[in-house]
Amino acid sequence: MTISNSFQFPKNFLWGGATAANQLEGAYKEGGKGLSTPDVLPGGKVRLKVLNDPGFDFKLNHEKYTYPNHDAIDFYHRYKEDIALFAEMGFKAYRMSIAWTRIFPTGEELTPNEEGLAFYDRVFDELLKHGIEPVVTISHYEMPLHLVKEYGGWRSRKLVTFFERYADALFNRYKNKVKYWMTFNEINSSLHMPILGLGFAIQEEEDHYQPTFQSYHHQFVASAMAVKKCHEIIPDAQIGCMIVYLPTYSVDCNPENVMYALQEERLFNYYCGDVQVRGEYPAFIKRYFQEHNIKLDIQEGDLELLKENPVDYIGLSYYMSRTEKKDKSPEEVGQGNILGGIKNAFLKTSDWGWEIDPLGLRISLNQLYDRYHKPLFVVENGLGAYDKVEENGSINDDYRIDYLREHIKAMGEAIKDGVNLMGYTSWGCIDLVSASTGEMSKRYGLIYVDKHDDGRGTLERKKKKSFYWYKNVIATNGDQL
Ligand code: BG6
Fold first, then answer.
1. Residue 13: helix, strand or coil by DSSP?
2. Residue 166 confidence (pLDDT)
3. What residues form DSSP beta bridges with 27?
4. Does the CB atom of residue 19 touch ligand 1 within 6 A?
5. Would you say residue 386 lies in a domain?
6. 298: CA distance to ligand 1 center in Å?
7. Strand locations in 245-334, DSSP E?
8. How deeply is 75 buried, as exposed, middle or buried, from its count of CB atoms within 10 A (0-12, 13-18, 19+)?
């Protein structure tokens, strides 16, 4: 048997970039849009505190905070120019999300807002005109603010009905334009930070687990309903789940640490996937529920719905791995490790302390494919870094090229390992507002946007060095890295 030295990405591999509505559109009050949860999240490092603050009131406070998502990079008015740049890079796919509040401003309306629907029609038409396949996340870290105030976010079963109506409106309207869908962005991340995905902060007097897992059940049901409807309304579409995946290493071969890492890995990486891909709650989570006294309100028909409507593919974001130890001291925890794992001595970190581990991506893809045997789609991966515009206007982001190259190589190796990989959309293909810190200076783009943390900037777009590099990667289908 001959194994080619080139990676041989599949012919129809979906190369492209990824963004989310609330992080790039701006125009937060235009076109009949209602307020959404990220509209009330402040910009700057204070955002991380707010995301973990049980007292967060979801109110705007202009005297105290700035709100970068309100204007973001103004994709709402500049989408044609931006899509032309994506097309120039040769994108085959563009992962984006729809702002729920453009379609249902409060979430409770019975009919969708035509102006919002028409906006995304224009965006999809523009993409399709350039031969770019839209890959749409239905809910990316946002929901109508009204649903948070009125119902407490996903704590309430009512959200299932509202989400179903929203998804139904999207499938019916865009059935001839969108063939790749995902339900909830990074659904598993709410185990750590429920504000973004579930729309509530855990109150101090409250047991963390009960509301979180009940809300998850509601999202699983909503997601399965969406899968069902998508298959009915758009039979030739594929709809996936989306999880943030961090392969979890034990710090050493002490079986106590290995078992601990395995438990953390199953809870974080596999709990949501098992329900959405296999269609049932796995045994390990049932034991966990028992031991933490979690009692889910599961209604008649829910479990059948989950079983009968698994997703077609698994979308994942990959930024870093995680290293675990059973009894760790606070000093051992890595500064930028979002899940609080310990520092990994073998890895370098980004400007924001995120550990860089390309091999971890190959490991992740193999683990996921071994477990589920379903097509995988890397829908987020990229480097958040400080960029410098030189006097001649160039942006020489070789560090980003190195990062992307190593991760793409890792995908190539995974494909050789036998993984069925559908595509790769690099995160923040155009600079946008960071989700966790609300900063513009944490730049991921292949396209630079002249917009700064203090709100200044002309919004002019410039091609970074990585723009030209990625263009060639796509043109050679990953052969020239
Ligand atoms: C993912 C999210 O977690 O990571 C994106 O889906 C986010 O919305 C991306 O922007 C990078 O994270 P951050 O916090 O650097 O923007």
1. coil
2. 98
3. none
4. no
5. yes
6. 31
7. 248-250, 313-317, 322-324
8. buried
How does DSSP classify residue 269? I
Residue 336: what pLDDT? Answer: 79
The 8 Å CB, 24+ separation contacts for 296-300 are 296/213, 296/214, 296/217, 297/157, 297/214, 297/217, 298/217, 299/157
- Whether ligand 1 lies within 6 angstroms of the CB of 309 is answered as no
**Cβ(438) – ligand 1 distance below 6 Å:** no
Which token pair is 366?
């193999």
Q: What is the structure's pLDDT at 2? A: 45
Residue among 458, 431, 419 nearest 13 (CA): 419
Domain span at 438: 14-475
Six-digit token string for 266: 């199953």
Q: From ligand 1's centre to the CA of 436, what distance in Å? A: 6
Q: Is the CB of 323 under 6 A from ligand 1?
A: no
Closest listed residue to residue 239, CA positions, set 251, 222, 255: 222
Short-list 226, 320, 211, CA closest to 276: 226
Rounded-to-5 percentages of helix, strand, coil across the chain: 45, 15, 45
Using the structure block, give the residue that is written with the tokens 């030209």: 468
Q: What is the count of structural domains for the chain?
A: 1
Q: Sort 31 into a burial class: Cβ within 10 Å, 0-12 / 13-18 / 19+.
A: middle
What is residue 180's three-state secondary structure? strand
> Which atom from ligand 1 is nearest to the alpha carbon of 427?
9
Residues with Cβ within 8 Å of residue 389, at least 6 apart in sequence = 395, 448, 462
The pTM assigned to this predicted structure is 0.97
User: Is 19 in contact with 96 (CB distance < 8 Å)?
Assistant: yes
The answer to the question of residue 2 being in a domain is no
Q: In this structure, what CATH number is given to the domain that contains residue 465?
A: 3.20.20.80
In a domain, 91, yes or no: yes
Establish if 140 belongs to a structural domain. yes
pLDDT of residue 5: 53
Between the CA of 134 and the centroid of ligand 1 the distance, in Å, is: 19
Cα torsion 29, 30, 32, 34 to 10°: value is -20
By C-alpha distance, which of 420, 415, 383, 428 is closest to 479? 415
Rounded Cα–Cα distance for residues 110 and 35 (Å): 17
**How many angstroms separate the CA atoms of 333 and 316, rounded?**
25
Rounded distance between C-alpha atoms, residue 350 and residue 385, angstroms: 7
Active site residues: 186, 380
Backbone angles phi, psi at 156, to 5 degrees: -95, 135
Q: For the chain, which residues score pLDDT lower than 50?
A: 2-3
φ and ψ at 229, to 5 degrees? Answer: -65, -40
